[in-house]
Amino acid sequence: MNQRDSLLLVLLMALWGFNFSVIKLGVNDIDPFLLTALRFTLAVLPLIFFIRRPNVPWRYLMAYGLTFGVGVWGLTTLSVGAGVSSGLASLLLDMSVISSLLVGRYLLKEQVTVSKVLGTILALIGLGIIIWNQDGTMTVLGLALVLSASVFWSVNGLIVKRSGTREIFAFNIWGMAFAPVPLLLLAMAVSGPSSVAQSIMNINSSVLFSAAFQAYPTTLLGYWFWNKMIVKYSVSSVAPMTLLVPVFALIGGYLFFGESLDAAQSIAALVILLGVAVSEIKLPKRRVIVKVG
């Protein structure tokens, strides 16, 4: 990978990391589901009218919109609103290393490598440290929400893989079109129509900035460049860059909201990041294949 692309990828990881602080900025003033609905509405309109629908069945687009829009980002945004710090929300999304292992093994019939197993064990140890040392700064509901979002992240990848699409950008746009309405309905079901109406009345410059930042640089520009790098280089050389996202998210949480990790959470963060790093290691198959079941 050349130096220019490496630098741009680091900047992208910083963008994605700081995005968690931007999410927190928005949920301070508006319903989390409504904020996420606004994010994907801005990301889709009016761009969808200028991009041809990808040649995949509608069910994949609908499933993508629900898992990515509602499952991943709807629940993540709700978890931040429920008290999870922006830094920890980003870190705990990396627990998808566990669900990805299970999805790969049992749904995609992939072989399980020792590095994946070791990475999963380390991630579980890190999660255990966070749960064991709860000091009231993170609610059980918030933790459950962001861990559920991490599972949806893996399911989302399964949907993209099963669709077989090569038109990734068009697939993203058309899939995200199925996110805003379910998110709005969830907001009304959880908070009530009157509360949603009040949230709409409370839309201010902070909310608009949060939604626009999530929609344009984070979603449209970010995923376009990420997919471009995936095509240009091997996945194994690009994917480890995502380890920087929680680092920048933790920095952003500290700079903008004064969030900090205690000693136990810091150790847990390092263990989880190490687990994700280990799971990305590619070893010779003859040395690492583990038969499961």
UniProtKB/TrEMBL annotation:
<feature type="transmembrane region" description="Helical">
    <location>
        <begin position="263"/>
        <end position="281"/>
    </location>
</feature>
<feature type="transmembrane region" description="Helical">
    <location>
        <begin position="171"/>
        <end position="191"/>
    </location>
</feature>
<feature type="transmembrane region" description="Helical">
    <location>
        <begin position="138"/>
        <end position="159"/>
    </location>
</feature>
<keyword id="KW-0472">Membrane</keyword>
<protein>
    <submittedName>
        <fullName>O-acetylserine/cysteine efflux transporter</fullName>
    </submittedName>
</protein>
<feature type="domain" description="EamA">
    <location>
        <begin position="7"/>
        <end position="131"/>
    </location>
</feature>
<feature type="transmembrane region" description="Helical">
    <location>
        <begin position="88"/>
        <end position="108"/>
    </location>
</feature>
<dbReference type="InterPro" id="IPR050638">
    <property type="entry name" value="AA-Vitamin_Transporters"/>
</dbReference>
<dbReference type="GO" id="GO:0016020">
    <property type="term" value="C:membrane"/>
</dbReference>
<feature type="transmembrane region" description="Helical">
    <location>
        <begin position="7"/>
        <end position="27"/>
    </location>
</feature>
<dbReference type="InterPro" id="IPR000620">
    <property type="entry name" value="EamA_dom"/>
</dbReference>
<feature type="transmembrane region" description="Helical">
    <location>
        <begin position="238"/>
        <end position="257"/>
    </location>
</feature>
<keyword id="KW-1133">Transmembrane helix</keyword>
<dbReference type="InterPro" id="IPR037185">
    <property type="entry name" value="EmrE-like"/>
</dbReference>
<feature type="domain" description="EamA">
    <location>
        <begin position="141"/>
        <end position="278"/>
    </location>
</feature>
<keyword id="KW-0812">Transmembrane</keyword>
<feature type="transmembrane region" description="Helical">
    <location>
        <begin position="115"/>
        <end position="132"/>
    </location>
</feature>
<dbReference type="Pfam" id="PF00892">
    <property type="entry name" value="EamA"/>
</dbReference>
<feature type="transmembrane region" description="Helical">
    <location>
        <begin position="33"/>
        <end position="51"/>
    </location>
</feature>
<feature type="transmembrane region" description="Helical">
    <location>
        <begin position="203"/>
        <end position="226"/>
    </location>
</feature>
<feature type="transmembrane region" description="Helical">
    <location>
        <begin position="63"/>
        <end position="82"/>
    </location>
</feature>
